[in-house]
Amino acid sequence: MRVGGAERKTKETEVRVKINLDGAGRVRVDTPIKFFNHLLTSFAKHGCFDLDINARGDFPHHISEDTMIVLGEAVERALGKKAGIECMGDAIVPMDDALVMVAVDLSGRAFPDIEVRFTKRKLDDLSSDLVTHLLQTLATNGKFNLHVKVLRGKNDHHKAEAIFKGLGVALGKAVRRAPRKGVPSTKGVL
């Protein structure tokens, strides 16, 4: 089993994350930010990851940001040397009026490129401007390329949820075992 865990304790937050990349979509996400919990649950369910997150802190910005730092670290630890994985994955995900494209490359190089616009300032109890920042934080700390583009959509909730569903699907494809590939790089290392 490819399981990774990480923790972060600061004066502002305390976060613990454990992820099993070979899971069945069993999720326990406990933060004080309900919409963030919903997005993380969608990510894990659609990626078929077992995910256990417990996060507490002072402000929603700090809690969600530190959670994504720790989640990125946990994913990287679970991947180990990355030998025998697909390495790249993508998804085009519809959710009612929203249509989102997500692509990842577990190259060991962080490069987030996120194209999303929201019309509302808040997505329930999460600031909408945090979504881009949280995705950038995850990719940076997970050391992978992450491209996200909202192709269409009017409902901000649907756009955000489709992004996290797509992230789960794309990452689930990228971590899939492909033993014949060996190290998925022409360099021989990631």
Give a description of the structure:
There is one protein chain. Helix content is 35%, strand content 32%. By secondary structure, the protein is α+β, with helices and mostly antiparallel strands. The chain has a single domain (3-181), classed as Ribosomal Protein S5, domain 2 (2-Layer Sandwich), CATH 3.30.230.40. The radius of gyration is 16 Å and the shape is globular. The model has no long low-confidence stretch (mean pLDDT 95).
Which ranges are low-confidence, i.e. pLDDT below 50, for 5 or more consecutive residues? Answer: none
CATH architecture: 2-Layer Sandwich
* Number of beta-strand segments: 10
- First-to-last CA distance: 20 Å
CATH top level label: Alpha Beta
Helical fraction equals: 25-40%
CATH superfamily: Imidazole glycerol phosphate dehydratase, domain 1
List the helices and strands in order. EEEHEHEEEEEHEH
- What is the assembly state of the chains in this entry? single chain
Strand content: 25-35%
Strand order of the largest sheet: 1-2-4-3
Class computed from helices, strands and strand pairing: alpha+beta
Largest sheet: 4 strands, mixed
What is the alpha-carbon Rg in Å?
A: 16 Å
Alpha plus pi helix count: 4
Instruction: Give the domain tally.
Output: 1
